[in-house]
Amino acid sequence: MRFGKRLGAWWRSRRDAARRDAGMSTTEYAMGTIAAAAFAAVLYKVLTSGTVSKALESVIGKALDAPF
Kindly report the CA angle at 37 between 31 and 41, in degrees rounded to 5? Predict the structure, then answer.
């Protein structure tokens, strides 16, 4: 069997397997939820830090004081 035919057969088997997949399993949902919560916690800590907070206040203050 030539390489192209073997590759085509492999690709078709992978495609068919992906089509049979009904969605994420409970474990995948749990891992995704944990990852999202961890990312949210890190983002919250960064945005509430003193340096970032001062920078955001400065940007907002400049935007509100802009002449029209």
Answer: 145
Q: Decide if 47 contacts 53 (C-beta within 8 A).
A: yes
The sign of the CA dihedral 37, 38, 44, 47 is negative
Contact 46, 38 (CB under 8 A): no
Q: Residue length, the chain?
A: 68
pLDDT digits (tens, 9 = 90+) for 15-40: 777 776 566 678 888 999 999 999 99
Instruction: With beta carbons less than 8 A apart as the criterion, state whether 24 and 32 touch.
Output: yes
The model's pTM: 0.47
Q: How far apart are CA 12 and CA 18, in angstroms?
A: 10
